[in-house]
Design brief:
2 copies of one chain form a homodimer.
Chain A lengths: L5 H15 L7 H8 L3 H13 L3 E4 L5 E4 L8 H9 L8 E2 L2 E2 L7 H18 L3 H7 L1
Antiparallel strand pairs in A: 1-2, 3-4
Chain A binds a DNA duplex through helix 3.
DNA sequence: GACAAATGGTACCTATCTGGTATCATTACT
DNA sequence: AGTAATGATACCAGATAGGTACCATTTGTC
């Protein structure tokens, strides 16, 4: 069970690369060469980032992507929400139905506490922080 | 992404029920009635618990399951390891290969810290604790 | 205007994982 | 012998994560 899934992971790497790049526009081909990923796959991730307002794109000759926000304004949690649909460690389904004992369930209470910690930690991480550590 | 998967969850409920039961031996039929789960599925979970030394079983007429350990000696983490193969939040696979940047990866360092917290919390939870809260 | 280089959009495919079923063998008591 | 229980194992199905293919659209250069 991974906390950070591939799409999120690749997105982080792509953004870090774009942020560090000298170029005005970074193309999928550049990212493919740098990150060693299949281009169509990379492109879909970039498109999702563009729709989410994290990247700006330009089509056509010499087109590509650039950041639409400062790295300090891009949070890891945003990317997790975008690519993984958020984080819900406590989701409790019993045979397709939400478990009827959820409110009193002792396990759930414990897991909820853990989840709160994880969320707090993740919310504190933005891309500027990750750049520094690089 | 669930921290506690169904098998683990059911196992906890089953153990709590057996621990609270007056009967010497609790059968799959009893558990089915109590937990509203399909019996064959329940039975497989019980068998896994038996093999792991958490339950003792008796076959034949009036047979069933009983605890092989005190609830305080059964840890939630044991069940997670048994049914979910443990917890590895940082597993980092890049296109089937372990990511070559793992050692220096800033995300991974952060996630590792979170994982350590989660493990510590989980290791502190045993079934006696959960019984009290019931 | 034709062409090439780039992204936009969408539908599809595939392997793995999670949850669940079916079947038969074995044991134990009456 | 018959019945009530578990042991073992193989199988099945739906969901999800990861990845591919294809065509439409836009933009700049010649």
């Amino acid at each position: 069970m991974r906390l950070i899934q591939s799409h999120t992971d690749y997105a982080v790497r792509a953004i870090l690369f774009i942020a560090a790049s000298e170029k005005e526009m970074v193309s999928s081909a550049d990212l493919e060469a740098e990150l060693d990923l299949p281009r169509p796959f990379m492109r879909r991730i970039m498109q999702d980032l563009q729709k989410a307002g994290i990247l700006k794109s330009l089509r056509g000759y010499q087109g590509g992507f650039q950041l639409a926000k400062a790295p300090a304004e891009i949070f890891l949690m945003d990317l997790i929400e975008l690519f993984q649909g958020g984080l819900d460690l406590t989701e409790c389904i019993f045979r397709k139905k939400v478990c009827p004992n959820c409110k009193t369930c002792p396990i759930r209470r414990r897991v909820k506490k853990i989840e709160n910690y994880v969320l707090r930690e993740l919310q504190g991480i933005n891309l500027a922080v990750l750049m520094q550590e690089k």
